[in-house]
Amino acid sequence: MHILQALIERGEVTVTEMAGELSVAPSTAHRILVTMTEHGAASRTPSRRYGPGPLLARPTRSPNALAATGRAFIDGVEGRQALRIGLRIGARIPAYCTSGGKAILAAMSVEQVVRLHPNGLPPWPGQRAHSMDELFAELDQVRRSGVAVNVGESEPGVVAIGVALPSSPLPTALAIALPADRFERTGLAELERALHEGIRRLPPEDAESASEM
């Protein structure tokens, strides 16, 4: 999100600038920018800098911008345990089948969600909701609890929880994914604490957005 904000405010950024500001290796910053470019959020300039992509250039950057085409995974960090969930950077999964995607949809109005699915929900192997009514019932639960949960919907044997950051430049969510058997031992409350701790450690402008949830 810091990179998105920088692209919007500055027009162009370099890999070195972003690596320094995010306190990550240049290779990591480069990977994130390449992934953003592949999904239209950034573009490569002739001077080897990065500017806003066509997604950011649209007149209206509403929650429809990403959710209309599914949820894209921009970056992630793997856990240290031997059994862990691999990164899915660049993968695209229907938003209603991921914890982060559900959190984003829950922050939208009923009308916006309906417009995203004029022909009903696109099929996905692990989908739990098979109709718009079932999806709306689940989104109501997300709004009440403050977090979205995905149990084996995006991938068999994987559980994830996520929250949306509603004030970010593009519809964005932060999520934690782990094997289902470890989720049973860890519990939802501990994961929620870890998720909100992750939000607290976001760069200042993003943490401010998260605090408005």
TrEMBL record:
One of its GO terms (molecular function) is DNA-binding transcription factor activity. GO terms for biological process: negative regulation of DNA-templated transcription. Residues 1-54 form the HTH iclR-type domain. InterPro entries: GAF-like_dom_sf (IPR029016), HTH_MetabolicPath_Reg (IPR050707), Tscrpt_reg_IclR_C (IPR014757), Tscrpt_reg_IclR_N (IPR005471), WH-like_DNA-bd_sf (IPR036388), WH_DNA-bd_sf (IPR036390). It comes from the Eukaryota. Keywords: DNA-binding, Transcription, Transcription regulation. PROSITE patterns: HTH_ICLR, ICLR_ED. Residues 6-213 form the IclR-ED domain. PANTHER family: HELIX-TURN-HELIX TRANSCRIPTIONAL REGULATOR, ICLR FAMILY, HTH-TYPE TRANSCRIPTIONAL REGULATOR RV1719. This is IclR family transcriptional regulator. It comes from Rhynchospora breviuscula.
